[in-house]
Specification:
The complex is a heterodimer of chains A (536) and B (113). With 536 residues, chain A is mainly α. Chain A is 74% helix and 0% strand. Chain A has one domain: Sodium/glucose cotransporter. Chain A has 19 helices and no strands. In chain A, helix 4 runs antiparallel to helix 14, helix 7 crosses helix 8 and helix 17 runs antiparallel to helix 18. The longest helix of chain A has 52 residues. Chain B is built from four helices and two strands. Chain B is mainly alpha-helical. A two-stranded antiparallel sheet of chain B has the order 1-2. Chain B has one domain. Chain B starts with 10 loop residues before the first helix and ends in a 6-residue tail after the last helix. The longest helix of chain B is centred in the C-terminal third of the chain and has 39 residues.
Chain lengths: 536, 113
């Protein structure tokens, strides 16, 4: 990010920031250790014994979904680019209707622990599970790397930790705490961390929102006027086009991003896995309703915070701060409530990274242990269920180590495209196969494999040869230029292509699974034979 | 841990239940709601994205004070998301859950009650 970061946000007190964050870590660790007492079986470790209620799980989903990118990133984008920043949040929210109407309940009724359970339900198990695990690991890895690299930027921004070594140590500490959450607490511990974090995040942003609006007599129009005045007059901040209106390529790029956002959410493996933590499909439905309420409310807050930061802090100050756009929300907190509020918001930002990476790690480790180890390598004959959980725990450690190393290596890199990439892979490799599996009786193994691998490969190839990786000032490798694909977001091409590959693969294969689809449909619509909650 | 699970039904049970009038009604009701509703919100979202992307002048039209059409349409996306969520929950509770429950009891032989 900013290699010349001159310490933290001016006026903040790094000790206060670290202190509040340490308090969060201690409290959550106590809760995680208490929650670990009942974590014995695979169902406990992966799915928290399916014992969470809809409202609890919905809050945890909000905690899992509202990453640092959506908190610091969107508020910052609104403060600097105005209206175009707001566009992100709408895609992130509307996407939940796909999950609510088409995916959540049916998935809960059909599967056990992972996305692979649903995709492989009526297919040949080993190839489809291997494919599902590959795309799960790919999405989790990109998302994880984005979060950990973001942590590096936050360190210099909020804690005033300077120098390579200092920042690397903080990233390692974040990674180790996360591994402890996952190893000790399993899904139950992770869920509680996410619930607490969601509560803190929403409470903190609610206070700031009311505070900002209070300064303008609760009048949104006045706030907007003051923001655009501070940005140098004109209505540039209020009208669309500041970020994406530059050329026809950037416009097309935005369209591509918009499609990936709305279709990607319901294909994110760590979101899907959360639906297994509730006892019934009805609770899965309530989960989404609660998640939509929290997430919608939160994005309304960020709208006020973004324009509030533009009005009260000023776009220029934000651009010149260490961390750039990402500093908008922290600087606003400092302006409103001094070092204490800044400390609280900084701690919440770190808690956000912790909760999100914990959710990703448990998902990736579950997919490896359950899909790859138990079903592909051991062909479904694992000696005992505890072996599978043991493999999952070891995998979690490996993933944690990879995340720490990746975060340290990537901390100077511009990896903002990684989140968009994760959504693009989720929308291209996962969503088509999920929808076909649930709703199309002719769908078969070849269709699933072509759609998953085709979507994954297309997305990766297009990203590698896009301006996000080379050939532009903001590219990951600024010196080189091997880009031939004009868009940074591949969704516009990769999503339709992978839907199409699913159809072609299916129709060219002679495999017919209509009988098995009848069973799947009865199960998914009624919940007959679905996994029940474990009683302790 | 599996002590509470019912016996797995036979393969022909699934086919029989699938063909039953109740299940077909449930399937039809679900699809009749979720497919059109998904098409509706996707079209409405895409329209909004295209307007914000290409119709800058239109979206910049001031309506009240500094609040322009773009902001109003954006906030309406929030409203429509909340409304569709509410409509679906009401529909599912009234029209889907009762049938799903009776079909489930039939499959599981009522031994979970």
């Amino acid at each position: 990010m900013n290699t010349l970061a001159q310490g933290s946000v001016e006026g903040g007190n790094p000790l206060v920031n670290i202190g509040i964050f340490a308090l969060f870590v201690i409290i959550t660790l106590v809760i995680v250790f208490r929650a670990s007492k009942n974590t014995k079986t695979a169902s406990d470790y992966y799915a928290a014994g399916r014992s969470f209620s809809g409202p609890q799980n919905g809050t945890a989903i909000a905690g899992d979904y509202l990453s640092a990118a959506s908190f610091l990133g969107i508020a910052g984008a609104i403060a600097v680019y105005g209206y175009d920043g707001f566009l992100y949040s709408i895609g992130f929210l509307v996407a939940w209707l796909v999950a609510l109407l088409l995916v959540a309940e049916l998935l809960r009724n059909t599967g056990k622990f992972t996305m692979g359970d649903v995709l492989a339900f009526r297919m040949r198990q080993r190839p489809v599970r291997a494919a599902a695990a590959t795309s799960t690991l790919a999405v989790s890895f990109f998302y994880l790397l984005a979060q950990m690299a973001g942590a590096g930027g936050l360190v210099s921004l909020l804690l005033g930790v300077e120098g390579d070594l200092g920042q690397s140590i903080v990233i390692a500490v974040v990674g180790i705490v996360m591994i402890i959450y996952v190893l000790v607490g399993g899904m139950k511990g992770t869920t509680w961390v996410q619930i607490i974090k969601a509560g803190l995040l929403i409470a903190g942003t609610a206070v700031m929102t009311v505070w900002v609006l209070g300064k303008y007599g609760l009048n949104l129009s006045e706030l907007l006027g003051s923001a655009s005045q501070a940005a140098g007059g004109g209505d540039a901040l209020l009208n669309p086009g500041e970020k994406y209106g530059e050329s026809s390529t950037t416009q097309l790029d935005f369209l591509s991003l918009g499609i990936a956002l709305v279709l990607g959410t319901a294909g994110l493996p760590h979101v899907l896995m959360r639906f297994y933590t509730v006892p019934t499909s009805k609770e899965a439905r309530r989960s989404v309703v609660w998640a939509i309420s929290w997430i919608g409310l939160f994005y309304l807050f960020t709208l006020v915070l973004g324009y509030g930061a533009a009005a009260l802090v000023g776009t220029e100050t934000i651009n010149n701060a260490p961390g750039g756009e990402n500093a908008a929300a922290p600087l606003l907190a400092l302006e409103l409530g001094g070092p204490v509020l800044l400390g609280f918001i900084a701690a919440v930002a770190f808690a956000t990274i912790l909760a999100v990476v914990a959710g990703l790690t448990i998902t990736a480790s579950a997919s490896f242990a359950h899909d790859v180890y138990a079903n592909v390598i051991k062909k479904g004959n694992v000696d005992s269920k505890t072996t599978e959980v043991k493999v999952a725990r070891i995998t979690a450690c490996v993933i944690g180590a990879v995340a720490i190393i990746g975060g340290i290596l990537a901390k100077e890199q511009n990896v903002a495209f990684l989140v968009a990439l994760a959504f693009a892979v989720a929308a291209s490799a996962n969503l088509p196969t999920i929808l076909y599996s649930l709703f199309w009786k002719r769908f078969n193994t070849r269709g699933a494999l072509w759609s998953i691998y085709g979507g994954l490969t297309t997305t990766l190839v297009l990203i590698v040869f896009s301006p996000a990786v080379s050939g532009s000032d903001s590219a990951m490798i600024p010196g080189a230029d091997f880009a031939w694909f004009p868009l940074s977001n591949p969704g516009l091409v990769s999503i339709p292509l992978s839907f199409l590959l699913g159809v072609i693969g299916t129709l060219t294969s002679k495999e017919h699974l209509e009988e098995k689809h009848k069973e799947m449909e009865v199960r998914s619509l009624t919940g007959a034979g679905a996994e029940k909650a474990t009683a302790h | 841990m599996n002590s509470t699970e019912p016996q797995p039904p036979e393969a022909d049970t699934w086919a029989r239940v699938h063909a039953s009038e109740d299940f077909q009604r449930l399937r039809k009701r679900l699809r009749n709601f979720v497919f059109p509703m998904t098409a509706l919100f996707l079209v409405w979202y895409l329209t909004y994205v295209l307007l914000a992307d290409y119709a800058h002048d239109f979206m910049s039209t001031k309506v009240v004070g500094n609040i322009n059409l773009g902001l109003i349409l954006g906030l309406l996306q929030f409203v429509s998301t909340f409304v569709i969520t509410g409509l679906y929950v009401r529909y599912a509770n009234r029209k889907l859950d009762p049938i799903a429950e009776s079909v489930r009891d039939e499959v599981e032989g009522g031994d979970t009650k």
